[in-house]
Every structure is written in C-alpha cells, then in structure tokens.
What we know:
Elements: H1 2-7, E1 12-19, E2 33-44, E3 47-54, E4 60-69, E5 72-78, H2 82-88, E6 92-94, E7 100-102, E8 118-124, E9 132-142, E10 157-164, E11 173-176
Antiparallel strand pairs: 1-2, 1-8, 2-5, 3-4, 5-10, 6-7, 8-9, 9-10, 9-11
Amino acid sequence: xxxxxxxxxxxxxxxxxxxxxxxxxxxxxxxxxxxxxxxxxxxxxxxxxxxxxxxxxxxxxxxxxxxxxxxxxxxxxxxxxxxxxxxxxxxxxxxxxxxxxxxxxxxxxxxxxxxxxxxxxxxxxxxxxxxxxxxxxxxxxxxxxxxxxxxxxxxxxxxxxxxxxxxxxxxxxxxxxxxxxxx
Length: 183
C-alpha cells in the first residue's frame, strides 16, 4: 500500500464523490448520494502474476502466469458530511443535533468486506476534460496511517482506500468520460 500512499500526492483532480449513482445524464450526484469533495486520487490496478523462470538460463524469466487484479483506489475525502461518514465508517450514530458521530469500536478479524461494498463514482468537475472513475463494488477501508485532524491549522479530511470487488455483472471499475460510461 505504500506505493498508493505516495501516489496520493501526485494526482490532483478537482472532483466530487457519490455513492450509488443511477443516471449519469443528470447533474451531480447523478441520482446517488453526495459524499463530498475529493482532493488527491490514486488508482492502483495491482495486477498479480507468477513469474516462471528457467534455471538452465540462470534464472531468467521465460513466462508469466496472470493471477488477476486486486485494484485499490485511494483518495483524500475533504471535510465530513453525514453521508460520507455513514458510508465509509462502520460504527456511526445520529446525534441529538441530527449530525452523525463516530463511535470507535475494535472489530474482530474475519469479517467480510464485500457486504459493505457499494457503487462509487468519482465525478470530475470538468467532465469535458477529465475522465470519471466508477468502482462497481467498492468497500471503504482506512489507510493504515490515516489520521483525522481536529484543528484549525489545516483542512479536515481523511485518507480513504477503497477495495474494488467484482459486481454481479463481472465489472470491477471503469475509467473514461462520464458521457461514455455505463452504470
């Protein structure tokens, strides 16, 4: 994951994020739920393969066998809103003022993250110049070195990673102009 985290500093695309979009022909949030602004974005395909070597050739790689992909997308979500908190953080509650809070609990290992997956769209501000990215079944996980700043010296936000799974149509992700994208 370290490669992804360093990549988060390199791509700055003005974009917004929404959950479960239904119609890309209408304005943001495209019939889905607005999760807010996003700053840095990085997509890492993480292609897996097994190298086959020949000892007679000094260990030269002579073939590679594909092992599929395990894509991850990382981003800095800017600020907090109720929808972003409820979609990305597992233990949330609604407070007396109507705003969401976070109740941190340790979780036991072994829980399946696919049950938390949802369709996630990164929608660029300038759809004519920049592509969008849709993750057909994304599950939010915290960056292992994530921090949630509580202060006035810098912008509040959180670095999130989204694990990408296959949906029921065998789709994982799509990167292209929104006008040409299919949900």
